[in-house]
Amino acid sequence: MRGLVHHIVLTVRDPDRSFPLYDLVLTALGYRKSERGFDWELATPSGSHSIHLGRASEDRAKDRHDRYSPGLHHLAWGVDSREEVDRIYQRLLSAAASILDSPAEYPQYNKGRGYYAVFFADADGLKLECVYTPLPTSA
């Protein structure tokens, strides 16, 4: 399918420190840890998709992510059910992750049609999200 994201590289201050959160979330979403460094891959019928953690340069390693500056605002992964959002949330709590917004319906998104999500942050302040949106129904 054309237009799918093939891979994402996220720059973090310390990949070793960031690894546990990303591994927790990505493996729960079906990604498999690659043998290469800080890489995870997801095999789908449309091909392989990957996420890689890269190390920030030394002169920028003190900076915290600012989602309101030019660049990435946040990254969201879609899941298959509200229960899966809740399961991810429980895993995040057990890992003492930084929860920005607990699982809830967010009617301002998806035209009020069941947008259910949890928002959290990585160690560098990058906003992350797991979201469920029901398939559209024909009227």
Describe this protein's structure.
The structure is a single chain. It contains two helices and eight strands, in the order βαββββαβββ. It is α/β, with parallel strands linked by helices. It has one domain: Roll (2,3-Dihydroxybiphenyl 1,2-Dioxygenase, domain 1). The strands form two sheets. The protein has a four-stranded mixed beta sheet, covered by helices on one side. The chain has a four-stranded mixed beta sheet with strand order 5-8-7-6, covered by helices on one side. A hairpin with a 2-residue loop joins strand 3 (about 40-45) and strand 4. It is globular, with a radius of gyration of 16 Å.
Keywords:
alpha/beta; 2,3-Dihydroxybiphenyl 1,2-Dioxygenase, domain 1; 8 strands
Topology of this structure?
Blueprint: E1 7-12, H1 15-28, E2 32-33, E3 39-44, E4 47-55, E5 74-78, H2 82-94, E6 98-105, E7 116-121, E8 127-132
Parallel strand pairs: 1-4, 5-8
Antiparallel strand pairs: 2-3, 3-4, 6-7, 7-8
